[in-house]
């Protein structure tokens, strides 16, 4: 049942989840990753590629760029977009920082960011899922199961966060978004 739901979650537009978002599908590929270079972000208003810090892009646009960069494996570009966000202590930013660091192999630093995100917002199911996936990948199944229990206790049963972590515990495979 879970495998069927996970397959649907990863393919159906209304079910799949991407990094740091309430959107349950992988990020849409845009000009940010198809035309822009060197971590620039496509500005829909000016129809040009712009540097994240040098632009007037809002945090929502930057969040979408981080998701797209992370999904594309462009982690340095994701970091630069995060650096331009207005609230560096926002739990979503901390979650992104954890995700990117985990994907870059900086597991200890990633766990620090996830912990900081959860201190800010204990109900951040995405941070719990990503933390648990990192723990599962490292072979720390008891700690990963604690995060899975927390997700369920906080209303996250049958969400992408729960299903992805349960799958990571079962298979050792983690997600890139």
TrEMBL record:
It comes from the Bacteria. TPR repeats lie at residues 91-124. Residues 1-18 form the signal peptide. Keywords: Signal, TPR repeat. This is Uncharacterized protein.
């Amino acid at each position: 049942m879970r495998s069927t739901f996970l397959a649907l979650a990863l393919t159906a537009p209304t079910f799949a989840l991407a990094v740091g978002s309430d959107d349950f599908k992988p990020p849409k590929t845009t000009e940010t990753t198809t035309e822009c270079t060197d971590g620039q972000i496509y500005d829909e208003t000016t129809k040009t590629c712009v540097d994240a810090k040098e632009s007037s892009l809002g945090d929502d646009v930057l969040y979408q760029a981080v998701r797209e960069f992370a999904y594309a494996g462009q982690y340095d570009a994701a970091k630069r977009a995060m650096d331009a966000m207005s609230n560096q202590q926002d739990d979503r930013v901390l979650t992104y920082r954890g995700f990117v660091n985990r994907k870059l192999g900086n597991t200890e630093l990633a766990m620090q960011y996830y912990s900081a995100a959860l201190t800010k917002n204990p109900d951040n199911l995405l941070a719990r899922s990503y933390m648990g996936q990192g723990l599962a990948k490292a072979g720390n199944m008891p700690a990963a199961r604690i995060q899975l229990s927390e997700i369920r206790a906080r209303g996250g049963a049958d969400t992408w966060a729960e299903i992805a972590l349960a799958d990571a515990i079962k298979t050792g495979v983690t997600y890139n978004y």
